[in-house]
User: What shape does this take?
Amino acid sequence: MTRWTDTALIFVAAVALSWLGWMLINRLLLRLIAQRSDFWRPLLARSRGPVQLALIIVALSIATRIAPLTVEEIATLRHVLLLCFIACMTLVARTALQIWVALHLRRFRIDVEDNLLARKHVTQSRILQQVGSLLIVAVGISAALMSFDSVRQYGVSLLASAGAAGLVVGLALQPVLRNLFAGIQLAITQPIRIDDAVIVEGEWGNVEEIGGTYVVIRIWDKRRLIVPLSYFMDQPFQNWTRADATLIGVVMLYVDYAVSIPDLRLEAERIVRASPLWDRDVFALQVTDFRETVTEVRILASARNAGRAFDLRCEIREHLLAYLQTDQPHAMPRHRSSIQMDDRPDRSAGLADKGIIEVNG
Assistant: This one.
């Protein structure tokens, strides 16, 4: 009992000394560093527990050298402490990565009109953060496994069994690994970014979230479309804000041949210029085709983003419909058979005079 009592007293003293050491380091050295950088201050606040535990682990590891323990007990205890220390350092590394990404993204805002550069950095940072966190965890697990002699020293039998198991696991994890590598490629090439306006599987929406293996598309009617990352590397899709958020809205009109194009152009220009949705860049009205019964007219008007372009198109249609109904009703599309006979020259009287048409009294 004396041996265990001495061991317990040594360990308690080691924990107390580590706590005093943490208080000294926290108040002197680390606080001086934290005052000079926005990185260290939140790192100290969020990793206080793991750092304190790491110092306790170091103190206990030193205490095992002077404690009255057997060789086997010392080896087992130091191995457990090593695993705990690796877990603490892994947690601190992940916390440091999260803080660094948050500080980096603080300089960019995506809630503004011209947010192309901000969306680029947000997309890259979030994807690389997820990949970095995964790599940190993988390195931590690898370091923990390498502390076991049976894993560190690969034998022939272990390699044979590990090879077969690795083949099975590799086949099972093929979709996950495929999406993981697609995420790395997406972070580098950036075919999509956060808040991009895209059309995927016939649905229009905005990129709301880019995860480690999937992308969340916020559909215009508030539905969510979940798409694997590999989709954007293998399938074609539309990105309306790839290089610039500005879009040109298109409004197609089909009117009768009797329409007055100059008057229609003046009215459309008046509507567009009066709208706050127009960005004062592009406007045009052109006759683009002749059909058998109607004339095809195309109106172009630009807006700052996809949402404003859609609303501008709807506004142009609404006002032009009212204009055609009131000012040019003859320009509304109609079939030839629907035109009244009184719209044509009245030839019945002349034909009756010549006896071609019999006129009954």
